[in-house]
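Hi R.,

As promised, here are both runs. First protein below:
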Amino acid sequence: MNIIKIIFVGIAFLCFAPELSAAHYYRNVEITAAGIYGQNGKSILFINISGDKSGMPACASTGRLAINSDAPQFKELVSIALSAYALNDSQVDVYANGTCNYWSNSEDILGIKMGAMPW
């Protein structure tokens, strides 16, 4: 009977525990640098942003954000990131994942928005 209680508590904990790495937004930032790098048949977009980066995970030791061409939204994110960079838009929101799967020292990008528009 005790083993069933332990399993139940374990499952309940996994269902209700907060994620270790949670997605979050960097709001009203400016993309201060952007670059594309190729490795192993993939393209990787890197960006630097202005503002508070204290929410970045420890793995993002460079302070950059990244996405690679395996992501279905890669081309669209490259387009909007480079447009925001070229226009010096300071109303950019970057939605990031809190992980460093696309590049080991840069936080994963999930989305980018320009201008005064709600998500």
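And here is the second one, sequence first, then its structure tokens:
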Amino acid sequence: MIQPLLLDYTVQDISARFDHALVNIGGELVQYPIHNTIFSGRSVRKYVYVKETEAIGKQILGASLMDKDGNTLANNPLNVVKNDKGFLIGFEFSVRLEATASGV
């Protein structure tokens, strides 16, 4: 039987895999750090922040979370024209356990 602690470890392990983000700004991929990480129960949220002074008037077409080796681990498609305010991009990952009946 899986113990709740294993699910907690899984959430922490998932979070540790993300190293940085690539944000598609007008067709150009720009690297951003992970701005914030929030754990809540068996979920983790990762945030990427495009500053007020960056990319004004350009289209933000999406963001990807990357591992340290440059592999894409998650995508968030967007289509937003950036104004002069900061822009926060969020990703949420939840871990849950499902039990199924087995004929064994």
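A quick note on the second one: The first strand starts at residue 20 and ends at 25. Let me know what you think.

Best,
J.
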